[in-house]
Amino acid sequence: MNRQSEDCVIEIEEGIKVIPGAGAVIAGIDKIANWGRISSMWPAVFGTACCAIEMMTAGSSHYDLDRFGIIFRASPRQADVMIISGTVTKKMAPVMRRVYDQMAEPRYVIAMGSCACTGNVYNTYSTAQGCDNFLPVDVYIPGCPPRPEAFIDGLIKLQEKIKNEHLRWSRWR
Amino acid sequence: MNSKEAAEKIREMFPEEVREIREYNSQTSVIVKRDRIKDIIRYLHSDPLLNFDLLKDLCGVDYSGKKETRFEVVYHLYSLEYRSLLRIRAEVPEDDCSIDSVVDIFAGANWPERECYDLLGVVFKGHPDLRRILLPEDWEGHPLRKDYPLQSDLGEKEWKGYLDVIELAKKNMEFETK
Question: Inter-chain contact B151–A123, Cβ cutoff 8 Å?
Answer without folding.
Answer: yes
